[in-house]
Amino acid sequence: MSVILESTFSNHAIKRSQQRGIRPWVVNFILEYADKYKYANASCISQFISKRKVKKLIQENVLPPAKAALVDGVVVVAKDEVIVTVFHKKMRFCK
Predict the structure, then answer these.
(1) CA distance 58 to 89
(2) Is the distance from CB of 31 to CB of 11 less than 8 angstroms?
(3) 2-21 per-position pLDDT tens digit
(4) DSSP of 53-89
(5) Rounded to an integer, what distance in angstroms lies between the CA atom of residue 26 and that of residue 36?
(6) Alpha carbon 84 to its chain's center
(7) Cα–Cα nearest to 73, from 30, 11, 9
(8) Based on the number of CB atoms within 10 Å of its own CB, is 23 exposed (0-12), middle (13-18) or buried (19 or more)?
(9) What is the CA radius of gyration of the chain?
(10) What's this model's pTM, rounded to 2 decimal places?
(11) Domain boundaries in the chain?
(12) What residues contact residue 37 under an 8 Å CB cut-off, 6+ apart?
């Protein structure tokens, strides 16, 4: 099975996205429209879309309501233009 992705994924990110049911288009969508950024460590940045931004994207017809649930709560961790891992946000980030 070959995986064609627009972004550069690490082997770990490909494996985790498949295990967690996060589709490649969701990751690319988050990278394009993310409005929240947090440092994961010294060199990685986690990115996600806030609930407020998801609602705004639905109102602007950028994101269909049926696909909003797939995007909401997904976090992408990247380092130097490479996706390191992806996961579903389960806990609240500190400000």
Answers:
(1) 20
(2) no
(3) 344 467 999 999 999 999 99
(4) HHHHHHHTTSS-HHHHHHHTTEEEEEETTEEEEEEE-
(5) 16
(6) 11
(7) 30
(8) middle
(9) 13
(10) 0.83
(11) 8-88
(12) 45, 46, 47
